[in-house]
Amino acid sequence: MKTEILKPIRENIRRAGKLIRAGELVAFPTETVYGLGADGLNAMACRKIFAAKGRPSDNPLILHFSHLSKVEQAAKILPAAEKLFAAFCPGPLTIILPKTKFVPDDVTGGLSTVGVRFPDNDVARAFIKAADCPIAAPSANLSGRPSPTTPQAVYNDLRGKIEIILDGGACQFGVESTIVDVTCEVPEILRPGAITKEMLEEILGEVKVAPTITDKPRAPGMKYTHYAPKVPLTLIESSDDKIFRREIKNLRAENKIVGVMSSQELISKLDEEKIIPVTYGRRSDLKSIAANLYESLRNFDDLPAQIILAEGVEDFGLGVAIMNRLRKAATFILRD
Known about the structure:
Layout: E1 4-6, H1 10-21, E2 26-28, E3 35-39, H2 43-53, E4 62-64, H3 79-88, E5 93-98, H4 105-108, E6 113-117, H5 122-131, E7 135-136, H6 151-158, E8 164-166, E9 178-181, E10 188-191, H7 197-204, E11 208-209, E12 233-237, H8 241-253, E13 258-263, H9 264-269, E14 276-281, H10 286-299, E15 307-311, H11 318-329, E16 332-335
Parallel strand pairs: 1-8, 2-8, 4-6, 5-9, 10-11, 12-15, 12-16, 13-14, 13-15
Antiparallel strand pairs: 2-3, 3-7, 4-7, 5-6, 9-10
Helix pairs in contact: 1-5, 10-11
């Protein structure tokens, strides 16, 4: 199969919608990452997502909608969800709700709930409207790899497996949507993202954070290794250049070629070290770090580094989402 990267003009969006209605897959941009979409009410089409990605079948998918009025076919809208829709949608938020009988078990991993969201991306919404159905979509990458935030990253992973990638340019946020379960007595964050715990608490009051890893995932990213580059990554939960110098020295003594993924501030302090540097932005600019995170990880695919040392960020606000992704990408974690 030939895979094409297409500009999101009307003709191409209509073609993409037609492919979805025919039970095929289309990669499309959102404000978070690129998604791999199928008709969310077509079980056979959704199975193609798992096959293309190599994704475990118990890892649930999220349904994407173009408008709130379309949700009731797939989910029961609870009062807490109404508040969140009004406050944050369209936007980088997924809400877990009781599912209806129309949603296949293939979408939910056999759960009685389903995640729904409204992407804040004009191309995504036009594509969903053209398909005329909810779009089930995880990130458009091979399972376990860093999520794609550019059409080229999708192409690198899924070339020959899908027909169309709609080119929406680079994604705005760069980390997947926040997932919050409002079917619990106290709403729970199942995956952190750009909509932070503090922001949710302003709307809902008390909000809990679910365990990061569980044997029975209620949402994407709760069970399996994710976001990993092709070589081992050690996450150093510190910005102390002395710790990085020590680790670089030890690894070079083992004849390792060392890559460092970090802030501009840390890279500048290590400029005399024999390393392969990749910077994800300034330490104070968490939005930029989030937007650059996956592309920074993917940059090492084309570099000769044999191990990556990654700098952690402040574990607060958007930093919670960044650290969640880095910890899941890491082979080892070094805490100061």
